[in-house]
From TrEMBL:
This is Dehydrogenase/reductase SDR family member 7. Pfam families: adh_short. InterPro entries: NAD(P)-bd_dom_sf, Sc_DH/Rdtase_CS, SDR_fam. SUPFAM superfamilies: NAD(P)-binding Rossmann-fold domains. It comes from Chlorella vulgaris.
Length: 338
């Protein structure tokens, strides 16, 4: 009798502890159970970040610079990259940060040339981590999104990273190592009203890189898919890129609400996932994190909730309001029914 009570007590304590951890979590519990790598783990590693000129990419650059990694920073704007370069140089020597401007969606063989330059950037040291961070979000309902806008979103968020990964592939295979770190989105896990094409692109990344990792498992090439929920970007005065109904617009600072994860914290978690070569990780506060688990394990329930929120979100976006305020969206639906 006593041992049974003891076992029940231990199980109850474990369940309570897991529940508390989950309620306080800002990432999936697998990622949070991994230890943060020591800073020395990154010394000398070569990290190529595409989309490094602002926002999440800049935060990743600063995190890895502080850890002593060697960096290759890419995006379209050399001017913006130079500002990030200067900030990185507070932590590492100037010659440890190489700028390699590129346009992910330009035609021609630009990405092949960029990949060749990146793998030679540090005297043939190659590239250990290739971070696919460039991207732009979408805030527009399905019926307001033209085919042209959808094509532009898919080109930047899906085709671009695929083309770059393809360009890097022979170099990674030749050096026998290389980890793709793909900054996708929780919209790849949780259906995202108002972000249909963006979600399709990020889901495409999830499928492509998972398939690639299975094909190349014996040759040292892997992929870590990182799915952030809402991040607090734009606080540095650099508005993020978002596609609205009529094409590309910029969105000013999103503010540091409790629901958003800071880019510094997201950088810490993304680098942790990359270090442990996790296949996938989720980085989000509740309720997005909770919805991720519900969609994974009880998808019908997730769809029930999201079908309640979705129409109100589409209306909010059309009216130029925030589509993120879940309580307001549920209330709107409730008051309409009432
Ligand atoms: N912010 C969020 O709440 C959030 C949430 C989940 C996932 N994410 C994902 O996180 C990533 C970064 O988001 P963010 O909010 O930091 O975005 P952001 O501030 O708009 O930055 C986008 C980055 O991509 C680069 N870029 C854009 N078009 C490019 C192109 N054609 N070729 C090369 N680089 C290009 C931009 O640099 P240039 O302008 O110099 O080219 C910039 O460095 C994106 O993939 C996004 O989908 C963001």
């Amino acid at each position: 009798m006593l041992p049974a009570l003891l076992v029940a007590g231990v199980l109850a304590a474990c369940a309570a502890w897991t529940l508390v951890r989950f309620m306080r979590a800002d990432a999936d519990l697998t990622l949070l159970s991994k230890r943060q790598p020591p800073l020395s783990a990154w010394r000398g590693k070569v990290v190529w970040i595409v989309g490094a000129s602002q926002g999440m990419g800049e935060a990743l650059a600063l995190h890895w610079a502080a850890a002593g990694a060697r960096l290759i920073l890419s995006s379209r704007s050399l001017e913006k990259l130079q500002v990030v370069h200067a900030r990185c140089c507070l932590h590492v020597a100037a010659h440890d940060v190489v700028l390699l401007p590129l346009d992910l969606v330009a035609d021609g063989d630009g990405l092949e040339r960029a990949a060749a330059a990146a793998f030679e950037a540090f005297g043939g040291a190659g590239v250990d981590y290739l971070v696919h961070n460039a991207g732009a979000s979408q805030h527009a309902a399905v019926e307001d999104t033209s085919v042209d806008v959808a094509a532009a979103l898919l080109r930047l968020n899906l085709q671009g990273p695929l083309a770059l990964a393809r360009a890097a592939l022979p170099h990674m295979v030749a050096q026998g190592r290389g980890q793709h770190v793909v900054v996708a989105s929780m919209s790849a896990v949780v259906p995202s009203p108002g972000q249909s094409v963006y979600a399709a692109a990020k889901s495409g990344l999830r499928a492509y890189f998972a398939s690639m990792a299975t094909e190349l498992a014996e040759r040292g090439v892997g992929a870590t898919l990182c799915c952030p929920g809402p991040l607090a970007t734009g606080l540095d005065g650099k508005p993020r890129m978002v596609y609205g109904a009529n094409g590309l617009v910029t969105q000013a600072a999103t503010g540091m609400s409790k629901k958003r994860v800071s880019t510094a914290r997201a950088a810490e978690l993304i680098t942790r996932a990359a270090y442990h070569c996790l296949d996938e990780c989720w980085i989000a506060n509740h309720p997005v994190l909770l919805l991720g688990y519900i969609m994974q394990y009880v998808p019908w329930l997730g769809m029930l909730v999201l079908k309640r929120v979705g129409p109100a979100r589409a209306r909010a976006l059309r009216d130029g309001k925030s589509g993120y305020d879940m309580a307001a969206l549920l209330n709107e639906k409730g008051s309409k029914q009432g």
